[in-house]
Specification:
- About 40% of the residues lie in helices and about 20% in strands.
- By secondary structure, the protein is an alpha+beta fold.
- The chain folds into two domains: about 10-85, Winged helix-like DNA-binding domain superfamily/Winged helix DNA-binding domain (Arc Repressor Mutant, subunit A); about 110-225, Nonspecific Lipid-transfer Protein, Chain A, CATH 3.30.1050.
- A five-stranded mixed beta sheet has the order 5-4-3-6-7. It has a two-stranded antiparallel ribbon with strand order 1-2.
- The N and C termini lie far apart (about 40 Å).
């Protein structure tokens, strides 16, 4: 049962919907365009599936999302309602606040290579691919303590879709990106430039020259987390 504050104040009524644990992150995923349960789960990997199902039921009951079967009747879609879209400015404001005041709050345990690669997958500019299909492998090192020291991910990108694999899909790899996870997150959030990370050796790219040069164009790194939610395109001044 969602929390109730017992107040008629509009802030209290909004908080009853927005301030449940995980709800803002689920809303973020819906605002990114995820509509399937599996995609929502991949966007919030530390949230249990049982909790995700519960939050989706609560959000439906609150009128924030609509649940429907797809046109083929083979799966369930979750879509923001008008009320859900009305929460977009609140989620944007949270992101802008953290961009300006919360940079120092990202510690080692917050670094998640799975979430990062999922962000790459949905932000990749498919229309700018220099070939019909490009296979990229990302080798991340410097994972949080308690996880393996290095992990690889594959992106198989075409002009129609982008797939993510945690195991070798068996295709020839066109580009290999070797990166320190912290540095790649900093580049993604716009707190370090891609060029400087490459110069410092925190990111190294191997592959054909045309594809190496295409990486910054395929992945618009400067503050992409903010821009994908239509937030400020550059970090706010301190």
């Amino acid at each position: 049962m969602a929390k109730r504050y017992g107040q008629f104040c509009p802030v209290a009524k909004a908080a009853e919907v927005l301030c449940e644990r995980w709800t803002p992150l689920v809303l973020r995923e819906l605002m990114y365009g995820s509509t399937r349960f599996s995609d929502l789960a991949r966007g919030v990997p530390l949230m249990s599936r049982a909790m995700l199902a519960q939050r989706l039921r609560e959000m439906e009951a609150d009128g924030v999302i609509a649940v429907r079967r797809d046109d083929k009747g083979q799966g369930i879609d979750y879509r923001l309602t008008e009320a859900g879209e009305g929460l977009r400015p609140a989620i944007e404001a949270m992101g802008m606040w953290a961009q300006r005041f919360g940079r120092g709050r990202i510690d080692a345990q917050d670094l998640d290579d799975g979430l990062l690669i999922w962000s790459f997958r949905r932000a990749l500019r498919k229309e700018r691919l220099p070939r019909e299909r490009v296979v990229l492998r990302f080798d991340f090192r410097g994972l949080p303590v308690g996880r393996i020291s290095q992990r690889s991910w594959w992106l198989i990108a075409t002009k129609e879709d982008v797939d993510v694999c945690q195991k070798d899909p068996g295709f020839d790899v066109d580009v290999v990106v070797k990166a320190n996870l912290r540095s790649m997150v900093d580049v993604w959030l716009g707190t370090q430039s891609y060029a400087s990370a490459v110069r410092e050796g925190a990111i190294a790219v191997e592959g054909a020259s045309e594809l190496r040069r295409a990486i910054p164009d395929l992945f618009p790194f400067r503050g992409e987390f903010q821009k994908r939610l239509y937030l400020t395109p550059e970090p706010l001044p301190v």
